[in-house]
Amino acid sequence: MEVVNALGRRKSAVARVFVSEGTGKITINKRDLAQYFPSTILQYVVKQPLNKLEVAEKYDIKVNLCGGGFTGQSQALRLAIARALVKINPEDKKALRSEGFMTRDSRSVERKKPGRPKARRRFQFSKR
């Protein structure tokens, strides 16, 4: 099998994934998954598509992650892994979509508007 690549985004985080056959090693920015995401919850989020298809020990994954915070990065990585798995085997798409791993969450931070302290917040109104 050749190397399959995919892209995942969430908020301002971008994950570029390169999947090849191997032993289940996930390397993020030249660091191990447990070292990059010390939180077990975020490690679980990243591995969700692999565990759903029961292929966690089958593929080696190299990742370039940039932008955003740790939650956005983990969810961007989950989307990228799911997209790569669908490129490898298109029959898996239905199972991954039913879990919501194939949907790109387009929510991002709303920009600050001029004449206001934040995006929607207005300065306090004074009647007198």
Please, could you describe this protein's structure?
- With 128 residues, the chain is an alpha+beta fold.
- It has one domain (2-97): Ribosomal Protein S5, domain 2.
- The chain contains 4 helices and 5 strands, in the order E-E-E-E-H-H-E-H-H.
- Strands 1-2-5-3-4 form a 5-stranded mixed sheet.
- A hairpin with a 2-residue loop joins strand 3 (26-28) and strand 4 (31-32).
- The longest helix has 19 residues, at 70-88.
- Residues 97-112 have a biased composition (Basic and acidic residues).
- Residues 97-128 are annotated as: Disordered.
- InterPro entries: Ribosomal_Su5_D2-typ_SF (IPR020568), Ribosomal_uS9 (IPR000754), Ribosomal_uS9_bac/plastid (IPR023035), Ribosomal_uS9_CS (IPR020574), Ribsml_uS5_D2-typ_fold_subgr (IPR014721).
- It comes from Phocaeicola plebeius.
- One of its GO terms (molecular function) is structural constituent of ribosome.
Q: What is the CATH third-level topology name?
A: Ribosomal Protein S5, domain 2
Name the beta content range. Answer: 15-25%
CATH class, named Alpha Beta
Q: Tell me roughly what share of residues is in helical segments.
A: 25-40%
CATH architecture descriptor: 2-Layer Sandwich
Instruction: Give the radius of gyration.
Output: 18 Å
Regions with little confidence, pLDDT below 50 for 5+ residues? none
Q: How would you spell out the order of helices and strands?
A: EEEEHHEHH
Beta strand count: 5
Oligomer: single chain
What's this entry about, in short?
This is Small ribosomal subunit protein uS9. With 128 residues, the protein is of the alpha+beta class. The chain is built from 4 helices and 5 strands; from the N terminus they run ββββααβαα.
